[in-house]
Amino acid sequence: MSSLKSFKRSWLVWIWLVTVFFLSGLIVNSIQILLLPLWYISHNVFRRVNAVLCYSHWAMLTFVGEWWGQLDIKFYGKKEDYELIGKEHALALPNHRSDIDWMVGWILCERTGILGGTKCYMKGFLKFLPVIGWMWWFAEYVFLKRNWDSDVPVLKKSLEQLNDFPIPFFLGIFPEGTRFTEAKHLNSLEFTRSRGLPELQHHLFPRTKGVAITLKYLKDVVPAVYDIESAYPQDSNPTMKHLLGGGECEVHLFVRRIPIENIPCGSDEEVSQWCRQLFVEKDKVMSDFAKNGEFSAERVELPRKKRNLIIVICWNILLAMPIFYILYSLLRSSLMVSVPTVAACLLIGYFSVRVLLRFSDTKKGSKFGLKQNGTKESPKEEKNGIHEVKKMD
């Protein structure tokens, strides 16, 4: 093992990275709180400033994939589609297969200059995550409880607020509702077979309610929907832990722009039918990858930028002096104070790393879509062409 790889896999180095991540995030959070009065003066001025603040912190996460780890992303599609990302409002409909799908999506946004304007539908509890969750809240991410009655007002309010968003946004929705696993796939197949619906071999059957209400409110705001498909070779290890250790990971990303005028948005039922057909097409694209080891579309060059690298270097320099000064002061104090304090800091850092890695681990992921207590969670019968969730005996 090379000395560089040993360095990247050191727990002390990981603790340092997490410490810088949290402290820089707290600085950004503090600035966001101080700027809150600006929201009541001008929403759009606050949004422009906040996008820069968010990017200054989120760039640390894309840095892990692009510069620290060896994440090799191969882009496919039409060059003209990629050129429009970051220049227009857009809705993105990706598949969901790995721990790092979010990072791959963020790197796409990083390289197209729209990372500060990203949005996503997320589980409600995530807004309480220290630093990153608070930042998502400031960035107007949409937090849902997976209860349709309580989520509808939240979605309506959030989507209406995007009507006058001053910079291009990139709103991501995972129609599958959860990460793909074999157990969840079997449950999805059981449902589609029982209803005579198309069977998907590489995706979970889409839940279309979120897509339908989103297009209902944004059809006059977003010029296009981006179909995004990520695929990983069998020997890839797409995990945060692997990337933090400087490991190699290959991912293939197919992007297709669908103009909004080509999408039937007249009713929820039309959107539902379109979304299901989209996933049939996505399944064919993934089958092509499974057969050939690559997508059949044209390769697109989308080189990495140095912005996130520069930002990470700046944060480390900015925080290194106060951190080392505090450590130096502690070490100069009595052993009764310094030893327990330093040990406590190391333990907090260690467990913070463990929590972050566990949070991103597919094996520790959501049970949404799995059988529980003798029941299985499957989409309900369609009502107006929209899927719901129910428990089936």
UniProtKB/TrEMBL annotation:
Keywords: Acyltransferase, Membrane, Transferase, Transmembrane, Transmembrane helix. Belongs to the 1-acyl-sn-glycerol-3-phosphate acyltransferase family. One of its GO terms (cellular component) is endomembrane system. Residues 366-393 are annotated as: Disordered. One of its GO terms (molecular function) is 1-acylglycerol-3-phosphate O-acyltransferase activity. This is 1-acyl-sn-glycerol-3-phosphate acyltransferase gamma-like. The chain crosses the membrane at residues 12-40, 309-331, 337-357. The keyword Transferase applies. Residues 377-393 have a biased composition (Basic and acidic residues). SUPFAM superfamilies: Glycerol-3-phosphate (1)-acyltransferase.
